[in-house]
Amino acid sequence: MPQSGLDPAIAAQLRRDAHGLFPAVAQQWDTGEVLMVGWMDDEALHRTLTTGRVTYFSRSRQEYWTKGETSGHRQWVHSVALDCDGDTVLVRVDQEGPACHTGTRSCFDETRALAAVVVPVDERPAVAS
Amino acid sequence: MPQSGLDPAIAAQLRRDAHGLFPAVAQQWDTGEVLMVGWMDDEALHRTLTTGRVTYFSRSRQEYWTKGETSGHRQWVHSVALDCDGDTVLVRVDQEGPACHTGTRSCFDETRALAAVVVPVDERPAVAS
Question: What is the pTM of this model?
Fold first, then answer.
């Protein structure tokens, strides 16, 4: 793993994949909208925690990528949390403009919904005891 | 990749990692709370789309895992969306009880927040033109 400036106490909690990466979920802090999922390594998380803006690691380009650098659609950090087993981070952000490179606010645009079976509340079986 | 019942039109849009997996973000559909991130393969997504409940693939146990099977903390599907490049899904759910195996509602409990620099809105520089 490359040297990173990340606090060793945080680094010790992380569980990374074989490439040293973990998913980072970006959520608009006030509306709760899930905007996108990117990837981070220790250094990307370090930059995200210390610069006020979200930095990811691009798997396709194999480089750091600070959101909005070229598009101007910056993500300002509101808060960052690890999950219970340290293999994902949730970054609450204030997103300027669209988060998605396709121009939609979220990468999970409703036009990308898949048909799914939804069980109405009154048809849910009781939990077996 | 193992045979799966997933609609080939959906399977064709997916981009999986070297293990055939992709992250799945579970969000409480009405409050917007991000509950957890799990992993799916084609068959887990197929089961999620067709049974009304969320099924993940456990990387540690290498088996399918329908959320709530043992805990009773079931996740009922509300809607499912692929992201723009097909490498993540967002599952909006109705979560019964805590989503986290530690007993907290979300795996990104506020006690797991990391210290982060937050730039106030009026101190954000203009986007370079």
Answer: 0.96
